[in-house]
Sequence to fold (139 residues):
Amino acid sequence: MSKLSMEKDPEASSTTVSDPDHIVGEIKDIRNADPAIDFLRHEGSVREMTAEDEKRLRRKTDWMIAPLMWCCYCLQYLDKTLINYANVMGLQEDAHITKGQFSNLALIFYITYLALEFPHGYAMQRFPTAKYLGGIIFC
Fold:
């Protein structure tokens, strides 16, 4: 088992572990840690965060983001499987398509979904989220 050595980085003011498989860090100086905090500091008064404040903020963020992510993943799963439910409920008869045509329809849907998933994720990070999502919804 390798021995981990703790190193102090004076510029970043954070403690890091030198073993790349086990990275642990705690922000000691929040002044350069977050652009959002810098923005708030510029716009008004922001007090320094304590370790308890950081824990409370992380917990609050987790409780707000985790349910939203769960809902999004459930809706995404339903979106991908609804075509199969529609087939069971009579899509082939209503649309007058054969089994081969339905198979091609499902194949086109899943290949398109897979091909566009990575560019979509990249674009969401690259462009302003609100404008990007608005453009996607408009399209």
